[in-house]
Fold:
Amino acid sequence: MHFGAVRALDGVSLTIRPGECVGLIGHNGAGKSTAVNVINGGLTPTAGTVTYRTTGTGAASARAAGIRSVFQELSLCPNLTVEENLRIPQRDLTGPGWRRRARQRIADALDTVFPGHRLQPRMTVGDLTLAERQMVEIAIGFAEGAVPARLVILDEPTSSLDASIARQLLDHVRDFCNRGGAVIFISHMLGEVFDVATRIDVMKDGRITDSRPRNEFTQQGLIDAMGHVATAPAEARKETSAAERIGDEVLRTDEGLTARRGEIVGLSGLAGHGQAEALARFFLSRSKGRRHARHPEVVFVAGDRGRDGIMPLWSILRNATLTTLPALSRRGIVDREAEDRLGADWKKRIGIRTDNMNNPILSLSGGNQQKVLFARSLASTAPIVVMDDPMRGVDVGTKREAYEMIRAEAAKGRTFLWYSTETEEVCQCDRVFVFRNGRISAELTGDEIDEQHILAASFEMKEPAE
Structure:
């Protein structure tokens, strides 16, 4: 598959059989999303063929073969209801009574995949949280239809889901495959891949470089098979203890959220319990007025990059330098050379996979778009960084480098408010506030910051520590 001079897929050969769950693994930009878009008929390959159970090629043949896709970049229409969104891929929902049938199908799918959910078919998608929208899109992928689902492609399906909801999905994937369905499971959360995959295919630079049954891989062996993304050499850093770098209190919110200079504060708990809203309120309260543009007090790394992050008509460079443009300007004129140097520096530091920073932002994979948003905030001089699940869809190698950068910036006195649905990320923090029903249910420090304590506080209210 070529896009101009870029070869996105280079001789990929892949077979999927009933009952299989194929884990498709690789760094951001390895070609995974391109491969599945060729399989589902969204892209016509430059060379080669895709063969389904039925005859023909393209998206119509893929639908007739029972191929469904759940995209990393959620494709729901925000102005439509949940049931109306189901009608878009299910072309048989027409005529009198289609709403009733759509309502029943999506309700059954949500109940099956996510028992205990609080979603209603008549809810407008734009009013849902990111996690709820991801749940709806997954349910649409598995919903009953005129043609039953035979192969469901899940591209980073748990990136916005908390651990308990993700577990429900993984249980359903295993059950679906045990009943003869097939799944392509793309995820940077390697533990989930080992949980559900029967076979793991590793992609690198548009090729499948390794393909083996799951039990023939170890987690470290899989990381080694993926290879490493070349980045600039890490700076030599002197590790500082939390006590050495944490200073005076720099923020306090009405919810009881506090943070000190140089502290990494985590927000955790079940998704949709007020964490993102608390971050948004704080960010908006500290980012008003003309002074904020040139000397920002706080910057924001969006988790929902499509809605809150990227400027889709702009280049990679302009997206990356957006918050620093006032500092790069003199009398309203941007210093283009300084902007280019800043973009090139962050391209190397965070491993943005592009040959030209002036390419459109949408030419990047979803994970690389997220890296641009990360670079945009860290390149600023703001002393406080608010992060709303910033590692969504980012590969394991980049995550580790990002953790190092966050610790290095904290050592320089920067404060981080970090909401994440991944326990591994929350455990990188100095202090963690667990949210339940829009309130802080517990404040964890030191050895208390682990999965057991976080889950306990997610279901039981406790008084935060004084």
